[in-house]
Predict the structure.
Amino acid sequence: MRAMAGSLSWVVGRSLWGQVPLACRSFSLGVPRLFHVRVTLPPRKVVDRWNEKRAMFGVYDNIGILGNFEKHPKELIKGPIWLRGWKGNELQRCIRKKRMVGNRMFIDDLHNLNKRISYLYKCFNRRGKYR
Amino acid sequence: MLQLVRAGARAWLRPKGCRGLKALAEEAVQPAEKPEPVASAGHRVPVLRRCELPVLAHRRPVQAWVESLRGYEQERLGLTELHPDVFSATPRLDILHQVAIWQKNFKRISYAKTKTRAEVRGGGRKPWPQKGSGRARHGSIRSPIWRGGGVAHGPRGPTSYYYMLPMKVRVQGLKVALTVKLAQDDLHIVDSLELPTADPQYLMELARYRRWGDSVLLVDLEHEDMPQNIVAAASGLKTFSLVPAIGLNVHSMLKHQTLVLTLPTVALLEEKLLWHDSRHTPLYPFRLPYRDFP
Protein backbone atom coordinates (compact mmCIF):
# COMPACT_ATOMS: atom_id res chain seq x y z
CA MET A 1 0.00 0.00 0.00
CA ARG A 2 2.78 2.33 0.97
CA ALA A 3 4.63 1.40 -2.31
CA MET A 4 1.48 2.11 -4.40
CA ALA A 5 0.97 5.42 -2.67
CA GLY A 6 4.61 6.24 -3.34
CA SER A 7 4.42 5.23 -7.02
CA LEU A 8 1.34 7.41 -7.67
CA SER A 9 2.41 10.36 -5.61
CA TRP A 10 4.13 11.98 -8.63
CA VAL A 11 0.84 12.32 -10.53
CA VAL A 12 -0.81 14.24 -7.72
CA GLY A 13 -0.56 17.83 -8.77
CA ARG A 14 -2.05 19.32 -11.96
CA SER A 15 1.31 20.05 -13.65
CA LEU A 16 1.95 16.41 -14.60
CA TRP A 17 -1.45 15.56 -16.15
CA GLY A 18 0.27 15.01 -19.52
CA GLN A 19 2.16 11.92 -18.18
CA VAL A 20 -1.00 10.17 -17.04
CA PRO A 21 -2.37 7.49 -19.43
CA LEU A 22 -5.54 8.73 -21.16
CA ALA A 23 -7.89 6.22 -19.58
CA CYS A 24 -7.17 7.69 -16.15
CA ARG A 25 -7.96 11.30 -17.00
CA SER A 26 -11.31 12.60 -16.00
CA PHE A 27 -13.21 14.78 -18.44
CA SER A 28 -16.28 16.95 -18.39
CA LEU A 29 -18.78 17.66 -21.16
CA GLY A 30 -18.28 21.40 -20.67
CA VAL A 31 -21.85 21.86 -19.45
CA PRO A 32 -23.02 21.03 -15.96
CA ARG A 33 -25.58 18.29 -16.12
CA LEU A 34 -28.19 20.62 -14.59
CA PHE A 35 -28.65 22.52 -17.94
CA HIS A 36 -30.28 19.76 -19.96
CA VAL A 37 -28.71 20.03 -23.43
CA ARG A 38 -29.84 17.43 -25.93
CA VAL A 39 -27.11 15.69 -27.88
CA THR A 40 -29.39 13.91 -30.37
CA LEU A 41 -31.72 15.47 -32.96
CA PRO A 42 -35.45 15.49 -32.18
CA PRO A 43 -37.66 13.38 -34.46
CA ARG A 44 -38.37 15.28 -37.69
CA LYS A 45 -41.85 16.79 -37.67
CA VAL A 46 -43.95 15.65 -40.62
CA VAL A 47 -45.52 18.56 -42.50
CA ASP A 48 -48.19 17.75 -45.10
CA ARG A 49 -47.59 20.31 -47.83
CA TRP A 50 -50.77 19.28 -49.67
CA ASN A 51 -53.49 19.34 -47.06
CA GLU A 52 -56.73 21.16 -47.85
CA LYS A 53 -55.66 24.51 -46.42
CA ARG A 54 -52.24 24.60 -48.07
CA ALA A 55 -53.42 23.33 -51.47
CA MET A 56 -56.26 25.86 -51.61
CA PHE A 57 -54.28 28.80 -50.22
CA GLY A 58 -54.83 32.01 -52.12
CA VAL A 59 -57.86 30.83 -54.08
CA TYR A 60 -60.39 33.67 -54.55
CA ASP A 61 -57.80 36.38 -53.83
CA ASN A 62 -58.56 37.87 -57.24
CA ILE A 63 -62.30 37.65 -56.82
CA GLY A 64 -62.63 41.36 -57.51
CA ILE A 65 -60.64 41.52 -60.73
CA LEU A 66 -62.01 38.29 -62.21
CA GLY A 67 -65.51 38.51 -60.78
CA ASN A 68 -67.03 41.86 -61.70
CA PHE A 69 -65.98 43.61 -58.50
CA GLU A 70 -68.91 42.28 -56.49
CA LYS A 71 -66.62 41.31 -53.61
CA HIS A 72 -63.31 42.75 -52.41
CA PRO A 73 -60.52 40.40 -51.24
CA LYS A 74 -60.53 42.14 -47.86
CA GLU A 75 -63.95 40.60 -47.24
CA LEU A 76 -62.31 37.17 -47.30
CA ILE A 77 -60.15 37.88 -44.28
CA LYS A 78 -61.25 36.04 -41.18
CA GLY A 79 -60.39 37.60 -37.88
CA PRO A 80 -61.42 40.08 -35.22
CA ILE A 81 -64.01 42.44 -36.56
CA TRP A 82 -61.95 45.53 -35.86
CA LEU A 83 -59.05 44.24 -37.95
CA ARG A 84 -60.69 42.96 -41.12
CA GLY A 85 -59.20 44.70 -44.11
CA TRP A 86 -57.45 47.35 -42.02
CA LYS A 87 -53.94 47.96 -40.73
CA GLY A 88 -52.68 50.31 -38.07
CA ASN A 89 -50.05 50.74 -35.40
CA GLU A 90 -50.72 49.76 -31.80
CA LEU A 91 -52.39 52.98 -30.69
CA GLN A 92 -54.63 53.00 -33.78
CA ARG A 93 -55.57 49.38 -33.16
CA CYS A 94 -56.45 50.05 -29.53
CA ILE A 95 -58.60 53.07 -30.43
CA ARG A 96 -60.39 51.15 -33.18
CA LYS A 97 -61.02 48.22 -30.88
CA LYS A 98 -62.47 50.53 -28.24
CA ARG A 99 -64.75 52.22 -30.78
CA MET A 100 -65.99 49.03 -32.38
CA VAL A 101 -66.27 46.49 -29.55
CA GLY A 102 -65.61 48.55 -26.42
CA ASN A 103 -69.23 48.44 -25.33
CA ARG A 104 -69.24 44.66 -25.10
CA MET A 105 -65.82 43.98 -23.60
CA PHE A 106 -65.23 42.67 -20.11
CA ILE A 107 -64.72 45.45 -17.54
CA ASP A 108 -61.15 44.46 -16.70
CA ASP A 109 -60.20 44.23 -20.37
CA LEU A 110 -61.75 47.60 -21.10
CA HIS A 111 -59.91 49.15 -18.17
CA ASN A 112 -56.61 47.70 -19.41
CA LEU A 113 -57.37 48.96 -22.91
CA ASN A 114 -58.00 52.47 -21.64
CA LYS A 115 -54.78 52.42 -19.65
CA ARG A 116 -52.90 51.23 -22.74
CA ILE A 117 -54.41 53.96 -24.91
CA SER A 118 -53.48 56.72 -22.49
CA TYR A 119 -49.96 55.31 -22.05
CA LEU A 120 -49.37 55.04 -25.81
CA TYR A 121 -50.81 58.50 -26.43
CA LYS A 122 -48.39 60.04 -23.95
CA CYS A 123 -45.56 57.89 -25.34
CA PHE A 124 -46.09 58.91 -28.96
CA ASN A 125 -47.11 62.52 -28.50
CA ARG A 126 -45.01 63.74 -25.61
CA ARG A 127 -41.85 61.65 -25.57
CA GLY A 128 -39.27 60.74 -28.16
CA LYS A 129 -37.87 62.38 -31.25
CA TYR A 130 -40.96 62.09 -33.47
CA ARG A 131 -44.03 63.74 -32.06
CA MET B 1 -35.21 55.75 -102.67
CA LEU B 2 -36.19 59.23 -101.55
CA GLN B 3 -39.75 58.03 -100.97
CA LEU B 4 -38.44 55.18 -98.80
CA VAL B 5 -36.34 57.63 -96.75
CA ARG B 6 -39.31 59.99 -96.35
CA ALA B 7 -41.60 57.10 -95.29
CA GLY B 8 -38.99 55.95 -92.81
CA ALA B 9 -38.59 59.44 -91.35
CA ARG B 10 -42.34 59.91 -91.09
CA ALA B 11 -42.72 56.54 -89.34
CA TRP B 12 -40.01 57.48 -86.86
CA LEU B 13 -41.42 60.92 -86.09
CA ARG B 14 -45.01 59.75 -85.65
CA PRO B 15 -45.73 58.66 -82.04
CA LYS B 16 -46.10 54.92 -81.61
CA GLY B 17 -49.66 55.09 -80.23
CA CYS B 18 -51.02 56.63 -83.43
CA ARG B 19 -49.47 53.96 -85.60
CA GLY B 20 -51.05 51.22 -83.49
CA LEU B 21 -54.51 52.79 -83.64
CA LYS B 22 -54.31 53.33 -87.37
CA ALA B 23 -53.24 49.74 -87.92
CA LEU B 24 -56.08 48.57 -85.69
CA ALA B 25 -58.52 50.62 -87.76
CA GLU B 26 -57.19 49.08 -90.95
CA GLU B 27 -57.47 45.63 -89.49
CA ALA B 28 -61.04 46.25 -88.38
CA VAL B 29 -61.99 47.36 -91.87
CA GLN B 30 -60.33 44.45 -93.69
CA PRO B 31 -59.76 41.43 -91.42
CA ALA B 32 -56.41 40.08 -92.64
CA GLU B 33 -56.54 36.53 -93.87
CA LYS B 34 -54.16 34.50 -91.74
CA PRO B 35 -52.66 31.46 -93.48
CA GLU B 36 -54.21 28.17 -92.27
CA PRO B 37 -51.71 26.30 -90.08
CA VAL B 38 -50.62 23.15 -91.88
CA ALA B 39 -49.32 20.09 -90.02
CA SER B 40 -46.26 18.28 -91.22
CA ALA B 41 -48.32 15.52 -92.91
CA GLY B 42 -50.07 18.11 -95.10
CA HIS B 43 -53.44 17.99 -93.26
CA ARG B 44 -54.97 21.26 -92.03
CA VAL B 45 -55.02 21.75 -88.28
CA PRO B 46 -58.33 23.31 -87.25
CA VAL B 47 -58.13 26.52 -85.28
CA LEU B 48 -60.84 25.96 -82.68
CA ARG B 49 -60.85 29.46 -81.26
CA ARG B 50 -59.71 32.79 -82.64
CA CYS B 51 -58.90 35.83 -80.58
CA GLU B 52 -61.97 38.09 -80.41
CA LEU B 53 -60.35 41.04 -78.67
CA PRO B 54 -58.22 43.39 -80.78
CA VAL B 55 -54.54 42.62 -80.93
CA LEU B 56 -52.03 45.40 -81.44
CA ALA B 57 -50.60 45.54 -84.94
CA HIS B 58 -47.05 44.69 -84.08
CA ARG B 59 -47.96 41.47 -82.23
CA ARG B 60 -49.52 38.21 -83.31
CA PRO B 61 -51.63 35.90 -81.17
CA VAL B 62 -49.82 33.01 -79.51
CA GLN B 63 -51.06 29.54 -80.42
CA ALA B 64 -51.51 26.52 -78.18
CA TRP B 65 -52.79 23.00 -78.64
CA VAL B 66 -56.26 22.11 -77.43
CA GLU B 67 -56.41 18.73 -75.70
CA SER B 68 -59.13 16.55 -74.26
CA LEU B 69 -59.41 14.58 -71.05
CA ARG B 70 -61.71 11.92 -72.50
CA GLY B 71 -58.91 9.65 -73.67
CA TYR B 72 -55.26 9.13 -72.96
CA GLU B 73 -54.17 9.78 -76.54
CA GLN B 74 -56.39 12.82 -77.18
CA GLU B 75 -53.74 15.48 -77.29
CA ARG B 76 -53.61 17.92 -80.21
CA LEU B 77 -57.29 18.11 -81.18
CA GLY B 78 -56.78 21.57 -82.63
CA LEU B 79 -55.24 24.95 -82.09
CA THR B 80 -56.41 27.94 -80.15
CA GLU B 81 -55.21 31.50 -80.42
CA LEU B 82 -54.25 33.26 -77.21
CA HIS B 83 -53.97 37.02 -76.85
CA PRO B 84 -50.31 38.04 -76.69
CA ASP B 85 -50.80 40.73 -74.05
CA VAL B 86 -52.11 38.11 -71.63
CA PHE B 87 -50.18 34.97 -72.59
CA SER B 88 -47.02 36.54 -73.94
CA ALA B 89 -46.45 39.50 -71.63
CA THR B 90 -43.04 40.66 -70.44
CA PRO B 91 -41.85 38.11 -67.87
CA ARG B 92 -41.71 40.45 -64.86
CA LEU B 93 -40.51 38.19 -62.07
CA ASP B 94 -40.43 41.09 -59.64
CA ILE B 95 -44.16 41.64 -60.12
CA LEU B 96 -44.72 37.90 -59.61
CA HIS B 97 -42.79 38.12 -56.36
CA GLN B 98 -44.71 41.17 -55.20
CA VAL B 99 -48.06 39.56 -55.90
CA ALA B 100 -47.08 36.24 -54.31
CA ILE B 101 -45.86 37.96 -51.13
CA TRP B 102 -48.99 40.11 -51.06
CA GLN B 103 -51.18 37.00 -51.27
CA LYS B 104 -49.25 35.44 -48.41
CA ASN B 105 -49.35 38.45 -46.10
CA PHE B 106 -52.46 40.53 -46.64
CA LYS B 107 -54.71 37.98 -44.99
CA ARG B 108 -52.37 37.46 -42.06
CA ILE B 109 -53.55 38.35 -38.59
CA SER B 110 -51.09 37.45 -35.87
CA TYR B 111 -52.75 36.70 -32.53
CA ALA B 112 -49.58 36.83 -30.41
CA LYS B 113 -50.09 38.92 -27.28
CA THR B 114 -48.16 39.30 -24.06
CA LYS B 115 -49.14 41.06 -20.87
CA THR B 116 -47.38 44.26 -19.98
CA ARG B 117 -46.51 45.19 -16.41
CA ALA B 118 -49.84 46.97 -16.17
CA GLU B 119 -51.85 43.92 -17.19
CA VAL B 120 -50.15 41.25 -15.09
CA ARG B 121 -52.18 40.48 -12.00
CA GLY B 122 -50.80 42.17 -8.89
CA GLY B 123 -47.84 44.46 -8.59
CA GLY B 124 -49.50 47.65 -7.37
CA ARG B 125 -47.64 47.98 -4.10
CA LYS B 126 -44.01 48.93 -3.57
CA PRO B 127 -42.43 45.64 -2.34
CA TRP B 128 -40.12 47.24 0.25
CA PRO B 129 -39.32 50.84 1.22
CA GLN B 130 -37.00 52.80 -1.02
CA LYS B 131 -34.21 53.13 1.53
CA GLY B 132 -33.04 51.10 4.46
CA SER B 133 -33.56 47.47 3.48
CA GLY B 134 -30.25 47.05 1.65
CA ARG B 135 -31.92 45.51 -1.38
CA ALA B 136 -32.20 47.10 -4.83
CA ARG B 137 -34.94 49.65 -5.18
CA HIS B 138 -38.14 48.46 -6.91
CA GLY B 139 -41.57 49.85 -7.48
CA SER B 140 -43.60 46.75 -8.26
CA ILE B 141 -43.13 43.03 -8.39
CA ARG B 142 -44.40 42.83 -11.98
CA SER B 143 -41.85 45.04 -13.70
CA PRO B 144 -40.11 43.42 -16.71
CA ILE B 145 -36.89 42.72 -14.82
CA TRP B 146 -38.68 40.56 -12.27
CA ARG B 147 -39.45 36.87 -12.72
CA GLY B 148 -43.18 36.63 -13.40
CA GLY B 149 -43.29 40.23 -14.48
CA GLY B 150 -44.75 41.68 -17.66
CA VAL B 151 -43.00 41.74 -21.02
CA ALA B 152 -41.62 45.16 -21.96
CA HIS B 153 -41.71 45.16 -25.78
CA GLY B 154 -43.57 42.02 -26.65
CA PRO B 155 -46.20 41.39 -29.32
CA ARG B 156 -49.29 43.43 -28.56
CA GLY B 157 -52.67 42.12 -29.43
CA PRO B 158 -53.97 40.79 -32.70
CA THR B 159 -51.95 42.55 -35.40
CA SER B 160 -53.02 42.72 -39.00
CA TYR B 161 -50.63 42.85 -41.94
CA TYR B 162 -53.20 43.97 -44.48
CA TYR B 163 -52.23 46.03 -47.51
CA MET B 164 -53.39 46.18 -51.12
CA LEU B 165 -51.28 46.34 -54.22
CA PRO B 166 -52.59 48.54 -57.03
CA MET B 167 -55.17 46.72 -59.12
CA LYS B 168 -53.09 46.95 -62.28
CA VAL B 169 -50.11 45.35 -60.52
CA ARG B 170 -52.26 42.40 -59.48
CA VAL B 171 -53.63 42.12 -63.00
CA GLN B 172 -50.12 42.23 -64.46
CA GLY B 173 -49.09 39.55 -61.98
CA LEU B 174 -51.77 37.24 -63.36
CA LYS B 175 -50.71 37.97 -66.93
CA VAL B 176 -47.05 37.30 -66.12
CA ALA B 177 -47.92 34.06 -64.35
CA LEU B 178 -49.93 32.83 -67.35
CA THR B 179 -47.08 33.86 -69.67
CA VAL B 180 -44.54 31.97 -67.62
CA LYS B 181 -46.70 28.86 -67.48
CA LEU B 182 -47.17 28.89 -71.24
CA ALA B 183 -43.53 29.59 -71.97
CA GLN B 184 -42.33 26.77 -69.74
CA ASP B 185 -44.76 24.24 -71.33
CA ASP B 186 -46.78 23.93 -68.14
CA LEU B 187 -50.02 25.31 -69.57
CA HIS B 188 -52.52 22.96 -71.23
CA ILE B 189 -55.79 24.04 -72.80
CA VAL B 190 -58.66 21.60 -72.79
CA ASP B 191 -62.01 21.86 -74.55
CA SER B 192 -63.89 20.82 -71.41
CA LEU B 193 -63.15 18.99 -68.17
CA GLU B 194 -65.27 15.90 -68.93
CA LEU B 195 -63.90 12.54 -67.89
CA PRO B 196 -65.11 9.08 -68.95
CA THR B 197 -64.97 7.83 -65.34
CA ALA B 198 -65.07 9.35 -61.86
CA ASP B 199 -62.02 7.33 -60.83
CA PRO B 200 -59.21 9.46 -59.39
CA GLN B 201 -56.74 6.84 -60.62
CA TYR B 202 -57.73 7.59 -64.24
CA LEU B 203 -56.86 11.26 -63.82
CA MET B 204 -53.55 10.44 -62.17
CA GLU B 205 -52.60 7.98 -64.91
CA LEU B 206 -53.58 10.51 -67.58
CA ALA B 207 -51.37 13.15 -66.00
CA ARG B 208 -48.51 10.67 -65.73
CA TYR B 209 -48.90 9.55 -69.34
CA ARG B 210 -48.92 13.11 -70.62
CA ARG B 211 -46.04 14.03 -68.28
CA TRP B 212 -47.84 16.88 -66.63
CA GLY B 213 -45.95 16.63 -63.35
CA ASP B 214 -46.84 15.98 -59.73
CA SER B 215 -49.44 18.68 -59.18
CA VAL B 216 -52.11 19.99 -61.54
CA LEU B 217 -54.41 22.97 -61.16
CA LEU B 218 -57.64 22.44 -63.13
CA VAL B 219 -59.67 25.55 -63.85
CA ASP B 220 -63.26 25.46 -65.07
CA LEU B 221 -65.53 28.41 -65.75
CA GLU B 222 -68.32 28.23 -63.17
CA HIS B 223 -68.53 26.34 -59.91
CA GLU B 224 -72.02 24.98 -60.65
CA ASP B 225 -71.29 23.74 -64.19
CA MET B 226 -68.36 21.48 -63.29
CA PRO B 227 -68.95 17.88 -64.46
CA GLN B 228 -69.55 15.41 -61.60
CA ASN B 229 -66.75 13.10 -62.73
CA ILE B 230 -64.03 15.69 -62.44
CA VAL B 231 -65.34 16.88 -59.09
CA ALA B 232 -65.26 13.33 -57.71
CA ALA B 233 -61.85 12.60 -59.21
CA ALA B 234 -60.22 15.81 -57.96
CA SER B 235 -61.67 15.46 -54.47
CA GLY B 236 -60.00 12.07 -54.22
CA LEU B 237 -56.55 13.39 -55.07
CA LYS B 238 -54.42 15.67 -52.95
CA THR B 239 -52.20 17.33 -55.52
CA PHE B 240 -54.93 17.87 -58.13
CA SER B 241 -56.97 20.99 -57.34
CA LEU B 242 -60.15 22.04 -59.10
CA VAL B 243 -61.08 25.70 -58.89
CA PRO B 244 -63.53 27.95 -60.74
CA ALA B 245 -62.14 30.66 -62.99
CA ILE B 246 -62.70 33.33 -60.32
CA GLY B 247 -60.35 31.43 -58.03
CA LEU B 248 -57.29 31.68 -60.28
CA ASN B 249 -54.34 33.32 -58.53
CA VAL B 250 -50.57 33.56 -58.73
CA HIS B 251 -49.83 31.54 -55.57
CA SER B 252 -51.81 28.51 -56.76
CA MET B 253 -50.25 28.74 -60.21
CA LEU B 254 -46.79 28.69 -58.69
CA LYS B 255 -47.62 25.92 -56.21
CA HIS B 256 -49.01 23.52 -58.80
CA GLN B 257 -46.65 22.37 -61.51
CA THR B 258 -49.19 22.31 -64.34
CA LEU B 259 -52.14 24.53 -65.18
CA VAL B 260 -55.09 23.20 -67.20
CA LEU B 261 -57.56 25.77 -68.52
CA THR B 262 -60.77 25.24 -70.48
CA LEU B 263 -61.60 27.30 -73.57
CA PRO B 264 -64.39 29.32 -71.89
CA THR B 265 -61.99 30.06 -69.02
CA VAL B 266 -59.41 31.39 -71.46
CA ALA B 267 -62.03 33.69 -72.99
CA LEU B 268 -63.07 34.99 -69.56
CA LEU B 269 -59.48 35.58 -68.46
CA GLU B 270 -58.61 37.46 -71.64
CA GLU B 271 -61.70 39.63 -71.36
CA LYS B 272 -61.19 40.45 -67.67
CA LEU B 273 -57.44 41.02 -67.81
CA LEU B 274 -57.36 43.07 -71.01
CA TRP B 275 -60.05 45.45 -69.84
CA HIS B 276 -57.59 47.02 -67.42
CA ASP B 277 -55.24 48.09 -70.22
CA SER B 278 -57.70 50.61 -71.57
CA ARG B 279 -59.91 51.71 -68.70
CA HIS B 280 -60.30 55.07 -67.02
CA THR B 281 -59.19 55.53 -63.45
CA PRO B 282 -62.11 54.89 -61.11
CA LEU B 283 -63.83 57.98 -59.81
CA TYR B 284 -65.68 55.75 -57.34
CA PRO B 285 -65.20 52.04 -56.60
CA PHE B 286 -66.00 49.70 -59.45
CA ARG B 287 -68.53 47.79 -57.38
CA LEU B 288 -70.88 50.77 -57.66
CA PRO B 289 -72.77 50.97 -60.95
CA TYR B 290 -71.21 52.70 -63.94
CA ARG B 291 -73.16 53.56 -67.01
CA ASP B 292 -70.94 51.72 -69.48
CA PHE B 293 -69.47 48.95 -67.32
CA PRO B 294 -71.66 46.02 -66.31
Observations:
- Strands of chain B lie at 47-49, 62-67, 78-82, 109-110, 159-160, 187-190, 216-220, 240-244, 258-262.
